[in-house]
Specification:
Layout lengths: L6 H4 L6 H9 L1 H8 L14 H17 L4 H12 L3 H8 L2 H17 L7 E9 L5 E2 L8 E10 L4 E8 L10 H14 L5 E8 L4 E4 L3 E2 H19 L31
Parallel strand pairs: 4-5
Antiparallel strand pairs: 1-2, 1-3, 3-4, 5-6, 5-7
Helix pairs in contact: 2-3, 4-5, 4-6, 4-7, 8-9
Amino acid sequence: MDLVIPEYVQKNGPWSFSKAGVIAKCSLQYDYKYGPDKKTFTEEISSTADSRIGVVVHKALEFALDDMPVKKAFQFAIDQGELTNDETEKVMSFYDQVDKFVARMAAFRLKHGVRKQNVMIEHKIGMSPTFKPVHFFEKTGLFRGVLDYMLLTGRGDAVVIDHKSGKQKELEHYADQCKAYCVLALAYRPEIKGVQTAINFVQTDKLLWNPRVTAETIRAEYHPWLVKFLEESCKGLEKPPAPTEGWWCGWCGYKAFCPNFKNK
């Protein structure tokens, strides 16, 4: 099935789930971040304590899942994080959860016949407008993403797990993101039979699974969904950039440039 991708989507790619989320919320923020005259952050959101802690926990998970001892993985991640003492203590509060998750994944890999070469950590995947794999930085690509943890099982399926270090939310909250991961996984390995996604809530040590989706369902339903998702998310590109206020304003690093806030 040939899918028609609008020009305004195509020419502004490659898209990621987060990039599409920016334009869907505020076209001015998108212009400041991705437009031809990019602005410099004045309030870099990644400098907040919660963000710094989340980045370091993700790093510790990354190292530990790559067979580094968990204690060493945490120390290595903390050494790279430039954290305060209080932030370091909060990172260490995730230790037991990470230790259990790594052990759980080792058992999962053994049970499902996952070979070492079929374990992918922080794996970058790019996809063309025809849903074929391309280089992550390919400018003509349609969509791309970094998958926290992907496994290829002995039965020919892909398992994609995304780590969340913040508060646990309902799985439905991540439904679109998980669909996008299914599309990317199939683009990367078109021979797989199906994809199963899950969210690893590190703070609560909960691993919540979505139902397995067949490759046929991804091609027949998720491919059109992704095109529609991008089409709807990116409609703001059809008009001149304009500010749209919402909860996201509290997390925006461009208030100094925004006409709705710079004089407040």
